[in-house]
Design brief:
494 residues, alpha/beta, five-stranded parallel sheet, 13 helices, globular
């Protein structure tokens, strides 16, 4: 095994997680790194999701790297194109582009017990060896289609919102939208004015809050650039509001009542028709599913060419969609706004750790990781935006920065102990998971079906509290929580 001081690293993914991880390592002298990206450009979900109206529901002053602020965001809640451009700029300005191997989709990674290194293989047959493997593929990278009979039989255009077919002109078309998740909330108002008819097939209504958006003027940009404390004050205000709302998830349940009241008043103000309002009123507690922000979703559904269908879909046929009441809804285009396979972490990559153990076997029953970062029996493998680090409220970029600092500390430990690996102690990881799940039991996420939970009912995605508590937990890597092994004495996560 190599005995150099600075360990090498392979990072998978170039979204916020992968780029943030790379910048953290480079700033601290870890320059023996390669970033693998399956596509031809950086950006992750902000490269992939190009549907009309795509944007972020967290204000950009907070939904950006703390060390790479932008003073000229066009508005408070930025759109997809601006966020994607920001990530491109960050990658270029920080010298990351020359370290990225584009069109390199990782298919498998295997830990070698004898050498204490990882072998990473890509779809094009390339193979490389590294000391440290860091996955930053995220939780929302694989679109999910509903399990509906005949879904492939439709004669017209049909596509998922994350794979938007821009060659399809929706003007004057009868369009079916299946799903009412965060994407649909955004693209429905964007397409409604130009379609002949829009039928929204809703399984469950969403809690929708007013969106406090602001279009930044040139004078805003000048002030943000010239007086950074003003920009920082807005960032802090957004962060503080998110932290306050996050307390309602598990600790101060009265906050949920406040959120419910705001959402109900928003619905009442924007939807006068009592029948439509009843359809759009959720039948589950606020917070159980992701809360959404929009000022134009409800108004779009009140227009004469739009209607909400709540009868269950039974099948897709060549000419449209049939519902449980036997009605055939004939349409020209079907758009699925049905979210992502968020609980299938790292899939379809095949990962094998110490003693050849498959990650899918380790995660039987649901993905789990210590701090969402390390898995017992998978030495020198680290996850960015891993299990239970998604947020119901707040900026995932804040979480990513916490994780990147923690992982950087792991590499610093390895640099002080050449020819060693770090493997989290199984007892430590299991104790952490028990406490985490107990806290998750106090949240509303177990009260309804959502992408936060896997088929067994385990909440695998979300962090149950304020982001500051996660920051404090991950501030310092505690070596006693890990086996520091030579390649010959791998503990295999015991």
């Amino acid at each position: 095994m190599r005995t150099r001081t600075m360990p090498s690293a392979v990072i998978i993914g170039t979204g916020f997680g992968g780029l943030g991880m790379a910048m953290e390592l480079l700033r601290h002298g870890f320059d023996d790194l390669v970033i693998l990206e399956r596509a031809a450009d950086v950006g992750g979900v902000w490269r992939e999701n190009t549907y009309p109206g795509a944007g972020c529901d967290i204000p950009s002053p907070l939904y950006s790297y703390s060390y790479a602020p932008r003073s000229d965001w066009p508005k408070r809640f930025s759109g997809q194109a601006d966020i994607h451009a920001y990530l491109r700029d960050v990658a270029r300005d920080n010298g990351l582009l020359e370290r990225i191997r584009f069109d390199s989709e990782v298919t498998e990674a295997e830990f070698d017990d004898a050498s204490g290194t990882w072998t990473v293989r890509t779809a094009d047959g390339d193979e490389m060896t590294t000391d440290v493997l860091i996955s930053a593929v995220g939780q929302l990278s694989r679109p999910a289609l509903p399990a509906i009979a005949g879904i492939g039989s439709f004669d017209g255009p049909a596509f998922h919102s994350a794979q938007w077919d821009h060659s399809v002109d929706l003007t004057g078309k009868r369009v079916a939208v299946v799903g009412t998740g965060a994407s649909a909330i955004q693209f429905v108002p964007a397409i409604q004015p130009r379609v002949a008819a829009l039928t929204l097939f809703q399984r469950s209504a969403a809690w929708v809050l007013p969106k406090p958006d602001v279009e930044y003027k040139p004078w805003h940009h000048r002030i943000f650039a010239a007086v950074p404390p003003v920009r920082l004050a807005e960032r802090f205000a957004v962060w503080a509001l998110c932290e306050f709302l996050s307390l309602g998830i598990a600790d101060v349940t009265a906050i949920r009542g406040l959120v419910t009241k705001v959402a109900v008043n928003h619905l009442r103000k924007q939807v006068a028709d009592p029948e439509l309002r009843a359809k759009l009123t959720p039948d589950y507690p606020a917070g159980c599913k992701r809360g959404l922000f929009s000022n134009n979703y409800y108004p779009a559904l009140t227009q004469p060419n739009a209607r909400v269908e709540t009868t269950e879909i039974t099948e897709v046929v060549p000419t449209g969609i049939r519902t449980a009441d036997g009605v055939l809804h004939e349409v020209d285009v079907i758009i699925y706004g049905t979210g992502f396979k968020g609980t299938e972490f790292l899939w379809p990559m095949r990962i094998r750790g110490a003693n050849g153990r498959a990650l899918e076997d380790e995660w039987h029953g649901g993905a789990r990781a210590y701090h969402g970062i390390t898995v017992p029996g998978f030495p020198n493998m680290f996850l960015v935006y891993g299990p239970n680090t998604n947020l119901g409220v707040g900026s995932i970029v804040y979480m990513i920065e916490s994780q990147a600092r923690y992982i950087r500390q792991a590499l610093e430990t390895l640099s002080r102990h050449p020819a060693h690996t770090l493997d989290v102690r199984r007892a430590v990881a299991e104790e952490y998971d028990v406490k985490l799940q107990a806290r998750l039991d106090r949240t509303p996420w177990g009260l309804c079906s959502s992408w936060y939970r896997n088929a067994a009912g385990r909440v695998t995605n979300n962090w149950p509290g304020a982001v500051v508590s996660y920051r404090l937990q991950t501030r310092t890597l505690r070596p006693e929580h890990y086996h520091l092994n030579t390649s010959a004495t791998s503990a295999a996560g015991q």
